[in-house]
Write a structure and sequence with these properties.
Length: 228
């Protein structure tokens, strides 16, 4: 959704205004997320959605407005993510999401999430345009990469935290490539459904899934157990 929403907004309004509005929206929802003391589905996933939009905007702005090549921005955001992980591990001695029980750890977590979205956007565009793979081939490439991580975890007992973060990072370029493939025009190797239409459709799915997690009694029971 971050990819399709960003592309739609940038075409509809001034890119600088779009990035500014995205930054304001992100600041508001993160302030809301940090103000609560437990996992509340609609607040958490609203924050994730805004991170997706703003992280994508940041990556696109680096290329479109500053003219930085996709390969360069991919390497840059990869380094940023590596620095976040290194700092997080040095301070907290773990990267497990199950250990996020303090404000400091939550700051590290959201910094990592932001970096993964920016990296995913840049990496997806790099494979599609710089490497000339197109959107569908990029989808298959990143899906295969996630499958390899899964096999490494199931068959060769890859550490679960490492496996999680590798898969988590790869979902970003995979999702961006899927959105581009479905939404972009036929002349751009897409299916031509339109970025705005894809953005709205994905928004509906997100609302349905988050609504389910909010009102599902089993989910609520798991949350109470986690809090205790």
């Amino acid at each position: 959704m971050g990819e399709s929403t960003t592309d739609f907004l940038i075409l509809q309004i001034n890119p600088y205004v779009a990035v500014g509005l995205g930054g304001i929206g992100l600041a508001i929802v993160l302030a809301l997320q940090f103000s609560v003391r437990r996992y509340i589905p609609w607040i958490y996933w609203l924050a994730v959605t805004m991170v997706a939009v703003f992280g994508t905007m940041a990556a696109d702005a680096v290329h479109i407005q500053l003219g930085v090549p996709y390969l360069t921005s991919t390497i840059f955001f990869l380094v940023v993510l590596a620095v976040v992980f290194a700092a997080w591990y040095k301070v907290e001695h773990t990267l497990s999401i199950h250990s996020i029980t303090s404000r400091q750890r939550e700051v590290f977590y959201w910094s990592a999430v932001m970096a993964t979205f920016a990296l995913g956007t840049a990496a997806g565009d790099m494979t599609a345009f710089t490497l000339h793979l197109g959107f569908l081939s990029s989808v298959l490439l990143f899906a295969a990469a996630i499958a390899l991580v899964s096999l490494a975890y199931w068959l060769f007992h890859l550490d679960e935290i490492i496996a999680f973060w590798f898969a988590y990072i790869l979902t970003r370029p995979l999702g961006a490539s899927v959105a581009d493939w479905i939404g972009k025009s036929h002349s751009s190797s897409g299916l031509g459904f339109g970025d705005g239409n894809i953005s709205m459709l994905l928004a509906v799915f997100i609302v349905i899934f988050v609504g389910y997690m909010t009102f599902d009694r089993r989910e609520a029971k798991r949350e109470r157990i986690a809090v205790r």
